[in-house]
Amino acid sequence: MPNLHEITATPQPTPCRFEPDANLHGNGAAPQPTPCRFEPDANLHGNSATPQPSPCRFKADANLHGNSAAPQPSPCRFKADANLHGNGAAPQPSPCRFTPDANLHGNGATSQPSPCRFTPDASAAGVGWGGPAYRRAMTEPRPEPLRVATEPRTADWIDDAVRAGGAALAPVAEAAAVVWTAPDRPDELAALLDAHPNLAWVQLPWAGIEPYLDVIRAHPDRTWSCATGVYAEPVAEHALALLLAGFRHLATYARAETWTRDAGRNLHGARLALLGGGGITRAFLRMVGPFACDTTVVRRSPEAVPGATRTLPADRVDEALTDADAVVLALPLLDATRHVLDARRLALLAPGAWVVNVARGAHVDTEALVDALRSGHLGGAALDVTDPEPLPDGHPLWSMPNVLITPHTGNTKAMARPLLSGRITDNVRRRIADEPLLGLVDPDAGY
Ligand SMILES: NC(=O)c1ccc[n+]([C@@H]2O[C@H](COP(=O)([O-])OP(=O)(O)OC[C@H]3O[C@@H](n4cnc5c(N)ncnc54)[C@H](OP(=O)(O)O)[C@@H]3O)[C@@H](O)[C@H]2O)c1
Predict the structure, then answer these.
(1) 67 and 171, same structural domain?
(2) Which pLDDT belongs to residue 277?
(3) Less crowded by CB within 10 Å, the N or C end of the chain?
(4) How many domains would you assign to the chain?
(5) Residue 326: which domain range?
(6) Ligand 1 center–CA 276 separation, angstroms
(7) Ordered mean pLDDT values, 10 residues apiece, the chain (447 residues)
(8) Which residues are catalytic?
(9) Together in a domain, 95 and 202
């Protein structure tokens, strides 16, 4: 749990009526050409002729304006933050993750409409000290930054992603949104949402959200977004690697301990069935383009997928599979898609066909797959996902020479981090700007 002083998202009650100096003087892109008129400490502390007993907690401003004789050790223009959050003279060892400063000062990666009431514009417009505009600015309520909680655990890069989008980190009780970081704790999320109706938007970190479908459907009053499409490139690349490895017999050669006979086939010109027409399939189609394959995409909606030879609706999946040299699965796991590849459909594939699964293990009837491999009807299977998962030691699939298994590594943590970080930042920015979120979940469709 963060310290209380860390999680305060509301501005600190301030005894100093010239508190906004940091904004006035530190927030502009351009350095101030004229000397700061709030330079002397006596003015900063109440316009009084009597010197103030305590040092100004924004004293650093004078230095920010080059008005100090002593050079500042840090060039950070948000140095005052340490005072805001710690009120101490000593610099804070680590930045407060709930500091609203980054937002107040336009520190986000994307430029946000600034909630700061002392924007440089006001200065440029010549808003005079103590004038009506200044007084209005002093008394009008400040627009609050979007407050986002990161639960049930967080990491610096997640917090940074939220801040970069222009939001402030906050505890759940004060947040309007939550970035949920656990892949498989739906009950905990349900309890959190029930306890906190203030959480109007939930960002999930994965593309496959089947463990959370019940929670999503039980909370239709919240806006739900996920990471669908985010991991398209790495997963598509993995699918292509698996397909090429299968066609080129690499699973067998990799296990061989002696020189063996030649085997393998070309991907060039092959007939492929692609189940799912979303981010992964689209990326895959771009990658496989030079192989001049005949590609049939099956998706839920009827619109043609760019780059595909043809696109079919979900009820024509048999047509896509018939005589295909390989099937690549890249669709969400739903009631309608569980065991979408069963014994009957596996039999529709061309003799020697490969099954490549980068979606979810339960799309394939594992027993039927083992049978089709044993019978010799299939050329092989390359699986990044299995049912059950993890695949238990001793499972027949492990020992089949024409089966290639990767342990759900189509999208490793290292690959996912920058991509998810980008999605979080982008969606926070969109939420603030009232733009449509990416990866918006349709609770009825289930993805
Ligand atoms: N191996 C990994 O590491 C990894 C990583 C990320 C994701 N995944 C899995 O891959 C899945 C797909 O990811 P994505 O980012 O490509 O998702 P996506 O962009 O949401 O695309 C899903 C696609 O599936 C289609 N679809 C929905 N219901 C269908 C049905 N009954 N029959 C056929 N197609 C149907 C959708 O049709 P419409 O276009 O008509 O809506 C859409 O084209 C995820 O759900 C996840 O389970 C695995």
Answers:
(1) no
(2) 98
(3) N
(4) 3
(5) 232-405
(6) 5
(7) 31 35 33 34 33 35 34 35 34 44 35 36 47 67 85 96 98 98 94 98 95 97 96 98 98 95 97 98 98 98 97 98 99 97 98 98 98 98 98 98 97 96 98 98 96
(8) 360, 389, 408
(9) no
Residue 297 near residue 326 (C-beta atoms within 8 A): no
> Is any atom of ligand 1 closer than 6 Å to the C-beta of 300?
yes
Are residues 223 and 236 located together in one domain of the fold?
Answer: no
User: H or E element: which one contains 223?
Assistant: strand 223-225
Q: Are residues 16 and 102 in the same domain?
A: yes
282 lines ligand 1 (CB under 6 A): no
If asked whether residues 84 and 118 sit together in one domain, one would say yes
The pLDDT, as a whole number, for residue 54 is 37
Ligand 1 atom nearest 410 alpha carbon: 3
Q: Is the CB of 232 under 6 A from ligand 1?
A: yes
Residue 226, ligand 1, Cβ within 6 A: no
Tokens of 10: 């509301």
Model pLDDT, residue 109: 38
Q: Which long-range contacts (CB under 8 A, 24 or more apart) does 36-39 make?
A: 36/61, 36/62, 36/65, 36/67, 37/129, 39/65, 39/67
Cα first-last separation, the chain: 32
CATH of the domain at 167: 3.40.50.720
